Amino acid sequence: MLRVDPIQEGIVLDHIRAGLGMRVFQELGLGEKGLTVALLMNVPSTKLSRKDMIKITGVPDLDLTKLGLLDPGITVNYIQGGAVARKVKPGLPERVAGLIRCRNPRCITSTEGYVAPEFTLVNPAAKEYRCSFCGERVRV
Amino acid sequence: MGAERALQGRSLVNASDLGLEEYESLFALAESIGRDPPAYAEACRGKILATLFYEPSTRTRLSFEAAMLRLGGQVLSVADPGTSSVAKGESLADSIRTVAGYADLIVLRHPKEGAAQLAAHYSPVPVINAGDGAREHPTQTLTDLYTIRTFKGRLRDLTVAVCGDLRYGRTVHSLLRGLRRYPGIRFFLISPEELRIPEPLRDELAADGIPLTEMPEMEAALPQADVLYMTRVQKERFFNEEDYLRLRDFYILTPERLGLLKEDGIVLHPLPRVTEIAYAVDADPRAVYFQQARLGMYVRMALIAAVLGVI
Ligand SMILES: [Zn+2]
C-alpha cells in the first residue's frame, strides 16, 4: 500500500468523503501556498469503507470554516510533536461567501455575476442559510 | 437635531436600516417642511439627484423629483436605463459608479431583489432604494408611517386593518414590519384565503407577540380600526377568473362599509387605485390617500435633505 510518512507538526484532515478530497484541496487553496501537502484518495477506512485524507505540514494559516459545508463528516486533527494535540469537527460556518450560489431567480446576483452573495446561517438544524442580497433561504 | 445629522452620507436600502429615533427625526423635519415649504426652497441648491429607474414607476419617480425640485436642487432622470446607452449591457455596478460621478444622490428602482444593496455597496454617493423587486421600498414605508403619525398623532397603540393582497404586496409587508417596532400595535389582516400573509412574516409578527387576527371579510374589523390600509387585489393572483370574480367584491371599500369604520379612523392606499375604493368614498374626510401622496413628498424631502446633510 502507498505510504505517506507521519507528520510532526501540521494538520491532518481525516474522514473526507471519498472523491471529495480534490475539491477540499482546491477550496482551501492548498496548491497555492507553497506548503508540503499530501492528498490521499480512496484510503481504506474502518469508519467509511473508503475515504480521502489531506496532510499538511507546518502551521499554515488556513480558513477551515468552509469544511463544515463541504463535508460535515471531516475531522481536523492538529498534530504537534508527532501526536494528535487536538481533534475538531468543524460545524457549519456562521457566514460563507463564494461557496453557495443564490437560487432565487429574482436575486440581483443571478444577473450581476460579479458579486458573490454572502450567506448567513439562520437555521443550523435545517442547514439553512440566508442570502445577504435577496433574503432567500437556501438549504445546503 | 442629532439623528438627522447621523443620516448624512448614508444609503437607505431597507426600511429597518433606520432606528425609531431616526424615523422620528425625519418625521419632525417633514412636518416642519410641510408647515413652511418656502423656508426649504433653497436647501439643496447646487445639488443633483439622479433617478435611475430600471422599471417604470412614474408615481415614485415624480415624488422624488418633486421633492428635490422643491428643495431647490436639480434632477437627472434616467427613465429607462435598460434601453438607453447609459446602461446597455453595462453592469449595475458600473452604471451606478458612472452616475455617481454626476450626482450627489442616487434614487434607484430595479426589478431584482437586493439591487439597492449592491448599488449602495459600489456607489460613492448615497443610494435611496425606491423599490427592489418584491423586497423593499423604504420610502413607501416612511410615507405610510408619516401619514398615520400626521392624522393619528402617534404610531403606538393603534389597531391597524390591512385589506387586500397580503401575500404578494410588498407595501403591506413593509408596513407590517415598520409598525411592529412600535408598542401597542394590533393587526387585522383581511384577505382571501389565497392571499394571506406569507408564513415567515406571520411567524415574525407572532414571535414579537403582536396580536393579529386574519379574516376573509372586513366588516368585523372596521368598527375597531384606527387605520384601514387598502391594497389592490389583482386578477393575475388567482388561479381562475371565477375565484377572482367571486371574491373581488369583498375587498372593495364602499360607502356602506366606510360607514362601519371607526369615527376617527383613516383610510390609506399606496395608489394607484383601481376598483378597490369606490369614488364615492373620496369625499369622506377619513379618506386620506391623496394627502398621503403629498405627505410622501414631504418625507422624501426630509430624507433627501438629511442624507445630503443640508439641514
Ligand atoms: Zn439572493
Total helical elements of chain B: 11
Structural class of chain B: alpha/beta
The percent range for strand residues of chain A is: 35-45%
Element order of chain A: H for helix, E for strand: EHEEHEEEEEE
Shape of chain B: globular
Order of helices and strands of chain B: HHEHEHEHEHEHEHEEHHEH
Compute the average pLDDT of chain A. Answer: 89
Number of strands of chain B: 9
| Spatial strand order of the main sheet of chain B | 7-6-5-8-9
CATH architecture of the largest domain in chain B: 3-Layer(aba) Sandwich
Main beta sheet strand tally, sense and closure of chain B: 5 strands, parallel
Number of domains of chain B: 2
What's the alpha carbon Rg of chain B, rounded to whole Å?
20 Å
Low-confidence stretches of chain A: none
Largest sheet of chain A: 5 strands, antiparallel
Helicity range of the residues of chain B?
Answer: 25-40%
Please, could you describe this protein's structure?
The complex is a heterodimer of chains A (140) and B (311). Chain A folds into two domains: 79 residues, Alpha-Beta Plaits, CATH 3.30.70.140; 45 residues, SH3 type barrels. Chain A contains two helices and nine strands, in the order E-H-E-E-H-E-E-E-E-E-E. Chain A has 140 residues and is mainly beta. In chain A, the strands form two sheets. In chain A, strands 2-3-1-4-5 form a five-stranded antiparallel β-sheet, with helices on one face. Chain A has a four-stranded antiparallel β-sheet with strand order 6-7-8-9, with no helix packed on it. Chain A is elongated, with a radius of gyration of 17 Å. Chain A starts with 9 loop residues before the first strand and ends with a strand. Chain B has eleven helices and nine strands. Chain B is globular, with a radius of gyration of 20 Å. In chain B, helix 7 links the parallel strand 5 and strand 6. Chain B folds into two domains: 148 residues, Rossmann fold, CATH 3.40.50; 156 residues, Aspartate/ornithine carbamoyltransferase (Rossmann fold), CATH 3.40.50.1370. Chain B is an alpha/beta fold and 311 residues long. In chain B, helix 2 crosses helix 6, helix 4 crosses helix 5 and helix 6 packs across helix 7. The model of chain B has no long low-confidence stretch (mean pLDDT 93). The site of zinc ion (ZN) has 9 residues of chain A, from loops.
